[in-house]
Amino acid sequence: MRVVIAEDLALLRDGLIRLLGAFGFEVVEAVDNGPSLLRALTTHRPDVAVVDVRLPPTFTDEGLRAALEARKQVPGLPVLVLSQHVEQLYARELLSDSSGGIGYLLKDRVSDVKQFVEAVRRVAGGGTALDPDVVAQLLTRHAREEPLQQLTPREREVLGLMAEGRSNAAIAAKLFVTEKAISKHTNNIFGKLGLPPSEDDNRRVLAVLAYLGG
Amino acid sequence: MVEIHRYGDSLEDRVSELLRKYWRRALSCTLPSLLRGVLQIVVAFAVNLPLFIVAVLAIAFIPLGVGVVLVPEVFRAIRSVADQQRTWAAEWSGVKIPVPYRPEPAGLGPFRRLGRLLADPASWRDLLWTIVNVPVALVLGVLAGGLALYGLEGIFVAPWLAWVSDYGWGPFWPLKDWGVVGIAGPVVLGAVLIAVSGPVGPVFLKAHALFSQSLLAPTRAALAARVEQLAESRSETVDASAAELRRIERDLHDGAQARLVALSMNIGLAEEMMKHDPEMAAKLLAEARESSGTALTELRDLVRGIHPPVLAERGLDGAVRALALTLPLPVDVHVDLPGRAEAPVESAAYFAVAEMLANVVKHSGAARAWLQIEHSGGRLIMIIGDDGTGGADPAAGSGMRGIERRLAAFDGTMAVTSPPGGPTVVTLELPCALSSPRISPSSGTG
């Protein structure tokens, strides 16, 4: 799997190259600023890009903008955005074209190597990986509202994991139950929230996020 | 021969060059002085005089109630005329007249607004200027513009008019009886007057500017009061930032720093155990990872409290939108800023808004809130409203008092209207300039 990395701190950049290399990714280019990121993304068209939000020259949201711009030119280009802090505002902007292949995680998550690599693979496959912090914020924001209050605690837990972008199988593994039990939960959730049921993992996630974000 | 020719030529050249230069300079002063002098007179009679009369009437009508509404409006008009005079004094004569008015918090009731206005000595000095300026502008305006005007009349009007009527001009009266001198005289004298008016006109304009300065600039007492206010807000700011630094130090010392110590200890232990107890080593490493995660979370919260990263990345606009998205109630956000304020102002504005919105969440019981930010008249204006139960008292809450202090460091003001039963509306104002046009984000969501 070909991957482009954008990270301005040499220590972290080398760490990411080593980490992804160890799991069989081929790092085609590692850049340290916004303009070269946009160029690298549009010329290499990698299977997935791992991008830091804040990059030179302005040290603002250079990386995010380059990623959004690249996705305009190459629709559906899978991008996993990493940041020291997560903002719902940015999550919305990343998900706004609803074509999948989006990840948005705190940099801390890299320390759980297995989960991080799984997230990169999921994004490369057109799926979604949303940081638990963002999902938790979304859920607290709507916690007081009517349909969410009808969910059982277990269903709320499943909804959170679903919003992060996990498949039924992954949720089942995480909660130590069968996949069948999870699919029963998800059907209940979709029923209570009035969302159309869908087998496609990614469409399912986007429906949940649209529901929570709106 | 050649030498002499050149010499003569250059002397002639020099003289004519000098004359031309003098005339050009004189004329370049004459026409503006003329127009400015006339403008001063016109403003004095057409604006100052009626305004003064209306102001006196409005003050007289205060007991009848009409004046309560009328007086602030009249004084606002007087201030804008005075501001125009300040601009002219600076542009025409280089006389700087600082603005002495005390900042007026928005959202005051009509009586308090009137009280503040009448208690401000600058208001009364403005009023005095409004009436005294009428005769002063007349005399100085006539001297500044009149010389040139009279000279022009001497050249272009007087000689011809004499033959139509019995008109005379200056010393030539009646002109007809003076014959040829009666025609040539006014032309020559007029030219002299115009030549003289060139350097003289600006002097009278400057005299007028200095007169305006004596009444429109802040008095010594006002400056002293201002110095006192600045000293107070400065010491409050210094105290607040020292307390802030102490808090940060404590948070770092007890939080991230302590966790990093534990972390390196765990890693060191794991290193030791690697050989004879790999299972224990793995457990220690897992613990180390967990405590590094906690340290990172604490650092992130700390950074948010010092300067939210999204504020650095997206400015006030993006930061308040991001903030609104994290609140448990819907907030309508309208931001209309053509540029970005300076970083300290932006930060003060952000934390003020954040504190107000936190109050809405904690105390108001509101179902909705709204936030409006715009920049007008050199001020950043932030209005936060909610549909809650009202009854917010800025004196009671230390949070609101803290915001007021924080804004005072920038000469900002806070006004709260919160009747029991609601709604609560808080208006924050910060004087500031906006710089460089905004680099708009690639996506307009939010």
UniProtKB/TrEMBL annotation, chain A:
Q: Which UniProt keywords apply?
A: DNA-binding, Phosphoprotein, Transcription, Transcription regulation
GO BP terms: namely:
phosphorelay signal transduction system; regulation of DNA-templated transcription
Record-annotated Response regulatory domain positions:
2-122
On the tree of life, the source organism's domain of life is Bacteria
- Which Gene3D superfamilies did the record assign? 3.40.50.2300
Q: Which CDD domains match?
A: LuxR_C_like (cd06170), REC_NarL-like (cd17535)
The record ties this protein, via InterPro entries, to: CheY-like_superfamily, NreC/VraR/RcsB-like_REC, Sig_transdc_resp-reg_receiver, Tscrpt_reg_LuxR_C, WalR-like
Note one Pfam family from the annotation.
Answer: GerE
Give the GO molecular function terms: DNA binding
Q: List residues of the HTH luxR-type domain.
A: 144-214
Q: Residue positions of the PTM 4-aspartylphosphate?
A: 52
Which ranges does the record mark as transmembrane?
none
Q: Does DNA-binding show up as a keyword for this record?
A: yes
PANTHER family, per the entry: TRANSCRIPTIONAL REGULATORY PROTEIN NARL-RELATED (PTHR43214:SF24), TWO-COMPONENT RESPONSE REGULATOR (PTHR43214)
Q: What is this protein called?
A: LuxR family two component transcriptional regulator
Q: Which organism does this sequence originate in?
A: Actinomadura verrucosospora
From TrEMBL, chain B:
Which InterPro entries does the UniProt record give? Answer: HATPase_C_sf, Put_sensor_dom, Sensor_HK_TwoCompSys, Sig_transdc_His_kin_sub3_dim/P
Does the keyword field hold Phosphoprotein?
yes
- This protein's source sits in the domain of life called Bacteria
EC numbers for this chain = 2.7.13.3
**What keywords are assigned to this protein?**
ATP-binding, Kinase, Membrane, Nucleotide-binding, Phosphoprotein, Transferase, Transmembrane, Transmembrane helix, Two-component regulatory system
The UniProt transmembrane annotation reads 51-71, 134-163, 183-205
What does the record give as the reaction this protein catalyses? ATP + protein L-histidine = ADP + protein N-phospho-L-histidine
UniProt enzyme class: transferase
The record's annotation in CDD domains points to:
HATPase_UhpB-NarQ-NarX-like
Q: Which residues form a coiled coil?
A: none
Q: Which PANTHER family match?
A: NITRATE/NITRITE SENSOR PROTEIN NARX-RELATED, NITRATE_NITRITE SENSOR PROTEIN NARQ
Query: What protein am I looking at?
Result: histidine kinase
